[in-house]
Amino acid sequence: MLITALIYLLAAVLAVPLAKRIGLGSVLGYLIAGVIIGPHALHLVGDQTEVMHFAEFGVVMMLFLIGLELRPDRLWAMRRPILGLGGLQVVVTCALLAGGLLLVSDLAWQTALAIGLALALSSTAIVLQSLTERGLLKSPAGNNAFAVLLFQDIAVIPILALLPLLALSSIGGTGADDHGHSLIHDLPTAAKIAVTLATIAGIVIAGRFLAAPVLRYMAETRLREIFTAFTLLLVVAIAALMQVIGLSPALGTFLAGVVLAENEFRHELEVDIEPFKGLLLGLFFITVGASIDFELLIQQPLIIGIAVLALMGIKAAVLGVLAALFKMGRRHGLLFTLALAQGGEFAFVLISAGRSASVFSAEVGSLVTVVVALSMLLSPLLIVLYEYLYSRPDQQACPSSADDNIEPSHDVILAGYGRFGQVVGRLLSAQGYHLTILDHSPSQVEMVRRFGNTVYYGDASRRDLLEAAGAAEAKVLVIAVDEPDKTLAIIATAQQHFPHLKILARAIDRRHTYALMRSGIAGLRRETFDSALNLGVDALKLLGLTDSNASRAGQLFKEHDEQTLKVLSELWGDDKSYGLAVRQRLDDLRQVLLADQKERDAHIDQQSTADHNT
Known about the structure:
The protein is mainly alpha-helical. It is built from 26 helices and six strands. β4, α22 (484-497) and β5 form a beta-alpha-beta unit.
């Protein structure tokens, strides 16, 4: 076990940084690492089936984290792309693939339909990881791709139920289903539906009413490892429950994440799960690369090559038409198309279930597995192609102005032009300073340009883009993006290549503030602090304090909080010391405000006495 773990970890730490450095991305790095150490190359590891079943849990954790970012109202707002776009993609792609197989082979219609259903699904792991890594998941194309993937994950359930109905008597089964029967497998249909609905309702109710007090109880232990253990227990228990009743574990944890999206411990859950998700997803990608049967590829190179191209070509054609029908635009439509034009990890599950249900033979299953794995291997290259086409310095503007050259600034570069950045930009422009404004959201750039503003599309963490924007001569870089990780990436690039730049940044929350303070930038502002403080001062006035007393209390609070930030930033990461310091600083704040109140009361008494004597 230790030797195997050593091989996987060594392959990852060698291949992934190299792939990232040459612009291929981490996903392709993991896949290449798997190919190299797999049984068909260096033969450092053997059969990947059991490891892949374990690594697939990374997909489960990823969907849980995505659920934490989606409030129920936002999920409801996405119902049209989920049902419309996702439903059309699965149905049309399956019909074309199954029809094509019937035309070019002698497969039975049941086998062709089962293969078409399996191949219609895309890779949730590869698509979401690739888009997230490049900051594209929240773009219109990323949102639509996520909607399709979510529908596909839901569609796995009825597809698995359909496979036994497609069994062929001429094909002998391969034994018990690799994934086992659910506990409700033999129940009547009505009972299955009732149990399924009851399980989903139980998850929703428990997440809404029980999760917060239990998580609070765990947090009060002040033992980080216990809170992490409970977080893992929560995800594993939900996944196991869904699997026991025959539903998708990924879908169950996604639902749990959505329910917990408004929970006070959402950020702690996210922080605890993220490292495990990243490691398991990396392991999953390595196992996909290692599972490619190159011996079969050598035996039938022409058939497999044509099959891979046909699969990706048909899926790309369907996705391209859907992108046009749903009016995504050229840029977003291309990204949407290239991101989803591959087979997915759920195809492995359906292939295994199809073989067990005697829908197709082991030989056909092996051939389809190789085709899916190769398409997944090629998929990240399509994202690299998209970046090459649209992320070069001469392609940074929106599609409507793709030929514009960035006008460099000698004064200020502003990264991020949303609600925060626009206030900063208007103030600086009104004072006569020249700004070069960058934003990595194409829709935001397009919208702002409609009002006559000059904003350039691009990722400000790229050295070449900052250089084109005038970073070599500019005086100040203001970072107003709404993603903490992206802010830190921009700071790292600027400090490494343009150390003379004075950097000011927008802080999203307290954790982000600590990271910015440690980065050594010239200054930062918390995006909601001043407005929240002013609202608190207004509340004090309504409660009876005079204008001067309320303003004085707000000023004291601000000064004390700024001092507190410096103290707590040095303790961040040490949970015990941090918790004690938070309570101590809160007590100090009460004492400061109380002492100031007593001082003002004493001053008023003295003034009254003096007036009386006079």
